[in-house]
Amino acid sequence: MAPATAATARGTRQTSTMAKKSAKSELLLRILSTLILLPLVVYLLLERGTDGSYIRGLLIFATFMMGYEFARLANLQHATKGLFTAGTIAIIWWLFAINFPAGFVDGIKVAVIAGLTITAIGYVLRKSKLKWAGVGLIYICVPVFSAAWLAVQAELSIWLLWTFAVVWATDIGAFAVGKTVGGPKLAPKISPNKTWSGFVGGVLLAAGAGGSFGWYFGLYEPFYLAFGAGLLSVWAQSGDMLESRIKRHFGAKDSGYLIPGHGGILDRADGLLFAVPVVALVLGIVA
Fold first, then answer.
1. Which residues of the chain have pLDDT under 50?
2. Same-domain pairing of 70 and 110
3. Alpha carbons 149 and 163: distance in angstroms, whole number
4. 20 found inside a domain
5. Of the four listed, 2, 35, 78, 260, which is most buried by Cβ atoms within 10 Å?
6. Would you list the DSSP string of 175-240?
7. What is the phi-psi region of residue 49: left when phi exceeds 0, alpha when psi lies from -120 to 50, beta otherwise?
8. What domain range includes position 263?
């Protein structure tokens, strides 16, 4: 083997080894952050406080951080950033003020109407930043109010925990299987690191987590919960892809740096932002 060829081969092996070590390190960080966050969410849901005040406090913090991260991601400036910040503060105040489940449904309606109005004004005025502010208001506030609606009702709050478990299992399964097995890319133009093997791995682990959780807490038939968790995993991964598309549009890798192995709150909650409203809708229909 020629010296140049040998050096190239060594360089390729070193790069491959470093990539594998980096993937293992990131997977460990993801698992550790989940092991820290999940008990916190469990504690806040089970302890609840007055009318779910503990979990509501967590949602208020998450709303503020996601609002900040989205404004940073979309490069909102001047009056647009002020308007978006004002909307986030209004949502935070509303979460403090509302003490009954129906109020959160009203909050969803207000968030959607306000978001669509801001987006429409942005289109009319041809202000791209204003359009993104309206989109961000809906993207963040609808899931937050949906989560709050579930959290404040003792008989439904366990389903919020089930949703967290399913989505986090999806994330770990997709990352672990995708990095281990590799294979064809899922959507290379949107998220070049995601693979079909990871997609399937996320669905399977989510189904296992959803069915096991349901069996342990006696929520429903494990088979049906596993099937529902698999479908929810597909939907959650669509949310992950949407945020990847948004980040790619703005040329950003992460929305923030708060959570090791994930980036920001938006990076960690992208699947939840899609999944929680669906679970709330289904429970609102059948409960």
1. 4, 6-16, 18-19
2. yes
3. 14
4. no
5. 260
6. HHHHHHH--SEEETTTEEEEEHHHHHHHHHHHHHHHHHHHHHHT-S-HHHHHHHHHHHHHHHHHHH
7. left
8. 28-47+156-287
